[in-house]
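Page 37, continued from 36.
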């Protein structure tokens, strides 16, 4: 079973993270995470610790090629970014898993 771990970048308490995983009560053979700080980083460290394969799906904020103008924002320096990169990352993670843990 593949497990998505997703949640806030501000959650950094590994004990609470492990408690949430223990509540799941199922076996998984792969952890999918988004490559950000917080919950994603804890999932990556947990997978490494247990020697469970993990896949990282980082958001591509700079990919604005062929994107509708409504989905493009501009940084203070004028550089364009994708307003929907986070949503695209979530979709990419969702289509390849069998279980999700939102934390």
């Amino acid at each position: 079973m593949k497990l998505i771990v997703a949640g806030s970048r501000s959650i950094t308490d590994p004990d609470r993270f492990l408690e949430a995983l223990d509540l799941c009560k199922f076996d998984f053979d792969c952890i999918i995470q988004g490559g950000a700080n917080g919950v994603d980083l804890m999932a990556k460290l947990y997978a490494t610790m247990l020697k469970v394969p993990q896949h990282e799906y980082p958001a591509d904020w700079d990919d604005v090629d062929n994107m509708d103008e409504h989905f493009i924002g501009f940084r203070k320096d004028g550089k364009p970014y994708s307003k929907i990169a986070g949503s695209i990352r979530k979709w990419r993670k969702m289509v390849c898993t069998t279980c999700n843990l939102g934390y």
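Residues 2-102 form one domain. Flag for discussion at group meeting. The mean pLDDT is 86.
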